[in-house]
Amino acid sequence: MYKGFSEENNWTESLQQNEALLRELFKNDDTIIYRHFENQFNSDLKFAAIFSSGIVNNEIINENIILPIVANNIRLTDKVKLIDVLKNQIIISNDITKTRELDNIIQAILNGNTVLLHDGASEALIINSKDWPTRVISEPENEKGSLGPREGFTESLLINLAMVKRKLKTHELKFKFRVLGSRSQTKICICYIEGLANEAILAELETRLDKIHLDGILDANYIVEFIKDAPLSLFKTVGNTERPDVVAGKLLEGRIALILDGTPVAITLPYLFVEYFQTNDDYYNSFFIASITRIIRLFSFILTISAPAVFLALTAFHQEIIPEPLLLSISLSRQRVPFPTIIEALILGLVFESMREAGVRASSNIGTSLSIVGALILGQAAVDAHFFSAPMLIIVGFTVVAGLMFPKLSGASMILRLILLFFAALMGIYGYIFALSGLFIHLFQIRSFGVPYMSPLNSLNFQDLKDTIIRAPWWYMEYRPKFIGALNRIRQSNGDRKLEKKLR
Predict the structure, then answer these.
(1) Which three-class secondary structure state does DSSP give residue 176?
(2) What is the pLDDT, as a whole number, of residue 1?
(3) By Cβ atoms counted within 10 A, which residue in 33, 34, 282, 466 is the most buried?
């Protein structure tokens, strides 16, 4: 019950009292419209349609609600209530609900529905008249692909669900709705394929959602921080995507998706480390090309977190490993540089990250110009002025460019780069190896909804390795990954009924 109103303030048979109750609740809100009208054949039949302007379809209200009631010669019997006649015979709508609960009525108005009041009835009709402003479906900027579909999620929950349904035309695709946020009343939908999704993971997700008591849920990341495993880890254990084809692919593997109203990002779980290096293009391109690019992404990740640390360790502690001509060239370039190597690496890293962030926040034209100016003009000027050495500028430049290949890991890779650089400055290559070992131990300890984070790299199951660092051809991936816990592992039938029955 809303603040200031008790059970005694619940719905009555008086239209004036009911309207006064709503006017008090929506006081100082000029977007709420109160439209009074009556039946032209019987002026004693008085009605009021209450709705919020800007989020309703006026044509539905005028032609499907008001016009039929005004123009209809309503005939009543003692056995039938007027409210039931309106619902079943007069109002034209595929979604009408009868209620006398104040909470339901308030939420209906805020969600873009129309509430119809009738003088003499203790119940109200909630009629679907939603018409929220929506963005045109377009390709997501952060997940562009050279092949495959060009559509991305919008801020409309129903449109997003329709795009997923379009990909998966099966009755086993299930949608379970929930509402989170006591004030935002954000509608969310749990999507999964019955018979594939692991029921234990689904139950665990619902349990974690039940523990969320935040008053406002405005974006998917609000929920992610509540439901993720290892909340203090640099790595995500809950994925996100703006593409319906990616969600469909995850669902077909036995994963679960969470789609929120008002945000173009869907949450997928469980989420594993290997998914950082997989893109939607991998499944639309040749498996040879996809496997090579995945290996390049993994190598780029190692390069972006390790290059400055290894360079510092070799030049400061292990100079005997460097060939003499190269060592002389590095020493010559550093003769007039005023900063130690570690300070040089930190300053350059900060400058490059600042430029990258500025390029993301600025408009597309300015961002491109800023990148060119930063990389060419400022870099060359800094070397000529002997602020930085050319080798360190090259190392940091390669590091930043390599990090662009996996944008979802950019934050974690930046922090890992600093940690490895710090340990390398303390103990050289041994400090680097020590920090890298700690990273691997941490990764193998994490779980995502009970699934080991490094799966399937932590097992020797050949079937599970077909879609990891390399991508096997589709005709070779007959079974779904075992580590996800899908109830039915058969992806394509091979005619071996005994084996299929064993794997189910």
Answers:
(1) strand
(2) 46
(3) 282
Angle 104-109-114 from CA coordinates, rounded to 5°: 105
Contact 56, 109 (CB under 8 A): no
Amino acid at 305: I
Of the candidates 303, 314, 277, the residue with the CA atom closest to the CA atom of residue 292:
277
Cα–Cα distance for residue pair 5/15, rounded to 1 Å: 17
- The rounded radius of gyration (Å) of the Cα atoms in the chain is 30
Average pLDDT over residues 297-307: 89
Inform me whether the pLDDT recorded for 440 exceeds 70: yes
Strands 114-118 and 46-52: antiparallel
Nearest CA to 283 out of 146, 170, 483 is that of: 146
Structure tokens at 14: 């008086």
- The identity of residue 229, as a single letter, is D
Average pLDDT, the chain: 82
Cα(6)–Cα(488) distance, rounded to whole angstroms?
51
- What are the residues whose beta carbons fall under 8 Å from the beta carbon of 449, sequence distance 6 or more? 201, 204, 205, 229, 237, 269, 270
| Burial track 256-286 (b if 16+ CB lie within 10 A, e otherwise) | bbbbbbbbbbbbbbbbbbbbbbbbbbbbebe
| pLDDT tens-place string over residues 2-11 | 444 444 456 6
Q: Which of 264, 266, 300, 295 is nearest to 278 (CA)?
A: 295
Q: Convert the pLDDT of each residue in 174-183 to its tens digit.
A: 999 998 988 8
